[in-house]
Amino acid sequence: MIYKILNISAWVIVVIATVFVLGFVNRQQDNLLMQKPIINIDYETENRFIDEQEVLDQIISKKDTLPLRMSAINVTELEKKINNNSSIKSAEVYKTINGNLIVDVKQRRPIVRIFSGTSTYYIDEFGSLMPVSEKYTSRLLVVNGFLNEPHEKRYKFNYANLDDTLKSKTLLDDIYEFSKFIDASPFWKAQIEQVYVNKDLEFELIPKVGNHKIVFGGVENLKGKFEKLMIFYKKGLNKVGWNEYSTINLKYKNQVVCTKMYN
Questions:
Q1: Average pLDDT of the chain, as a whole number
Q2: Domain final residue, candidates 107, 133, 168
Q3: Is 103 in the same domain as 138?
Q4: Is 213 in the same domain as 246?
Q5: Measured distance CA(30)–CA(33) in Å, rounded
Q6: pLDDT tens digits for 112-165?
Q7: Number of CB atoms found within 10 A of residue 24's CB
Q8: Claim to verify: residue 66 and residue 127 sit in the same structural domain
Q9: pLDDT (tens digit per residue) in 104-113
Q10: Are 172 and 115 in contact (CB under 8 A)?
Q11: What domain range is 174 assigned to?
Q12: Pairing relation of β-strands 119-124 and 129-131?
């Protein structure tokens, strides 16, 4: 019994000591002057929507008197402020014991760029609309044509996160589904550079290699159509040449209908 009491007492002393030390360290830390913040931006992809200076401007405003004390930095509020940037997926801000301020930033990753009338924007990998940046243009799949999906009309669009009972089908849903498929395939990502939406709201694909147009139709049987096209590429175009046909039509079941190129 005495051993149990002594053991509990020892743990209480350790906890109290830890709290005291942490409190002392925090007070000492807050009295330190802030050094230049350490900003880590993920550049895992080629995208450069955010740079260090832009993040630094969020931390230190023009009205701030330098140098700042660490006590003046509200980590929670600063995180919210940085996360308001439309190009940022997430930002984590924290202080180190030696007085450094660390900011870890992850960028959003767009998978398709939409041109709808005078409006242009991206859809990111999670299905959210993303405005374009004045600093950087991402090179990826482009969709244009008979679209009436301006950014201001659909800027809250995220079909993937809506409840089934609330889903309202739009052309953007099909574009997102199509773009996800392209993004997941290294070959098609390298081959398909543009989707033109015709007046019947069907997709026509413009490849990077070959002078042909691919009449794709809608996104139904998406995987099957690309499998059919791949077979045709391997067994057809590889034999007759990539510039033999002007149109390759995938709309018909179990067949590929082509139109010859005429000079």
A1: 82
A2: 107
A3: no
A4: yes
A5: 8
A6: 999 998 899 999 999 999 999 988 999 999 999 999 887 766 666 665 655 554
A7: 10
A8: no
A9: 999 999 999 9
A10: no
A11: 110-260
A12: antiparallel
